[in-house]
Amino acid sequence: DNKYLNYNTETIYSRIVKINAKENSIHNLYGGEEKQGFFTSTLGKQELTKNGNILFTSSHEGKIFKVSPNDEILWVLTNYTEDKSLKTVVIEASVIERDYLKFNINK
User: Fold this and answer.
1) Considering the entire predicted model, what is its pTM?
2) Of 7-16, 67-76, 81-90, 97-106, where does mean pLDDT reach its minimum?
């Protein structure tokens, strides 16, 4: 959601919202404030994890974030070109359960 998008100012922020159609309500999960510094005009995706964290992409910034329910940034991955001169677009990120990939590693 880019509710705070105003091209007439320098201040633009995205936010991740949870919509409850039954109760006709919107709950802000993350973003929408300058201190959070999150903006994606298109392509941003998010995933609410089992423990309440949010994994999301800020596509054109080339970033993947993981944020706790109390807005603490747990980690950020920035996708750079090999020489770190450019940030590259990140379309999507997903949480994969530990048991999803089964490797047979014999030591």
Assistant:
1) 0.64
2) 7-16
The percent of the chain in helix, strand and coil, each rounded to the nearest 5, is: 5, 30, 65
Burial 16-51, CB ≥16 within 10 A → b, else e: bbeeeeeeeeeeebbbbeeebebbbeeebbbeeeee
- Distance from C-alpha of 61 to C-alpha of 103, rounded to nearest angstrom: 33
**What are the tokens at 40?**
């994606």
Strand, coil or helix: 19: strand
Has residue 62 got a pLDDT over 80?
A: yes
Tell me 80's DSSP state.
B
Long-range CB contacts for residues 95-100, cutoff 8 Å, separation at least 24: 95/47, 95/49, 95/55
Nearest of 29, 2, 32 to residue 18 by alpha carbon? 29
Other C-beta atoms within 10 Å of 90: how many? 21
